[in-house]
Amino acid sequence: MKLDEKFKCQKCAHCCSTLQLEEDAGLFPGYFNSAYILHCCKPSLTLFDWEAKEMAEEAEKEGIKLKMTPYKLVYDTNSKTAIILQYALAHNVCPFLKFNACSIYAKRPLICRLFPPNARGITSGTITLNCSSCPYDMKHNDWEESAKLNLEPKAMIKKIHERYGEIFEAEVEYEIMSKQITDWINMLILKGVISPAKGFEPKVLLKMASESQIVPLSMFFKAMIPQKADEMDKLIEDARQLVHGKKFLEEAEKQAF
Ligand code: SF4
Ligand code: SF4
């Protein structure tokens, strides 16, 4: 049973060189998990806004022409501002891939740290498991075999954690921070700071956003609610250390058998 084996990356770089933002006209742009968060493109290599900033800084140091595009945004009708929650890298092959290795390995974003397991809903208890594009990871049949074990969710989480180690902690961290950015947006709405555009045809809203001022969420949030700036910085720093993901898994696995 592969689930019992530890995953070992073979450093083939397949995951860093197949990042296409393929067109999927039926889905993008569109509203998915809310009526006001617009998903502008396919989720390729997705970056939180602070990660996008760091990657841009690294690219500048290395003389790399980096292309990024908004992935998730909220359009504020008060300030006529497109607030970018996440970006996507707009390259087929990551420009930081040098001689088949990541040239910013220690600073690579969460999305790179969490590959290849493809588990969703870990923090909400609605776990779905799928195979990824990694040629050296479990295939669809392997996951089907694992499902036949009929493990309790907590026991399954423990097994996956044992197989992937820190990679899985990054996966949970990504899920937690994805919820966190939605919470920050909701706080801006509740405090009456922003009034998100709703009910627009996605393509119309995307055009409006592209013609207005564009601000990353963390910058906007700190400017509008400065008393929460330190708290936000701490959450972001902790996310880099996978603090939330590790803590969640520790708690979840306490009761696993
Ligand atoms: S595709 Fe899989 S084996 Fe290849 S570099 Fe990525 S994680 Fe490692
Ligand atoms: S940042 Fe590094 S790990 Fe991530 S896709 Fe680029 S080369 Fe690969």
Describe the structure.
With 257 residues, the protein is an alpha+beta fold. Helix content is 40%, strand content 15%. It has one domain. It contains 9 helices and 10 strands. Strands 1, 2, 3, 4, 5 and 10 form a 6-stranded mixed β-sheet that branches. The longest helix has 25 residues, at 166-190. The radius of gyration is 19 Å and the shape is globular. The mean pLDDT is 94. Residues 16, 45, 94, 96-97, 102, 104, 108, 112 line the site of one iron/sulfur cluster.
Give the tags.
257 residues, alpha+beta, two-stranded antiparallel sheet, globular, binds iron/sulfur cluster
- What structural class do the secondary elements suggest? alpha+beta
Using only C-alpha atoms, the radius of gyration works out to 19 Å
Give helix and strand order, one letter per element, not per position: EEEHEEEEHEEHHHHEHHH
Could you give a short account of the major beta sheet? 6 strands, mixed
> Beta fraction of the residues?
15-25%
The rough form would be described as globular
Helix percentage range: 40-55%
Total number of strands = 10
- Which ions, cofactors or small ligands are bound in this entry? iron/sulfur cluster
Tell me the distance between the termini: 18 Å
Give a brief rundown of this model.
This protein has 257 residues and is of the alpha+beta class.
Layout of helices and strands:
Blueprint: E1 30-31, E2 38-39, E3 46-48, H1 49-62, E4 68-76, E5 81-89, E6 97-98, E7 101-102, H2 110-113, E8 118-120, E9 128-130, H3 140-147, H4 153-164, H5 166-190, H6 202-210, E10 213-216, H7 217-224, H8 229-240, H9 243-254
Parallel strand pairs: 5-10
Antiparallel strand pairs: 1-2, 2-4, 3-5, 4-5, 6-7, 8-9
Helix pairs in contact: 5-9
Bound molecules: iron/sulfur cluster (2 copies).
One iron/sulfur cluster (SF4) binds next to loops.
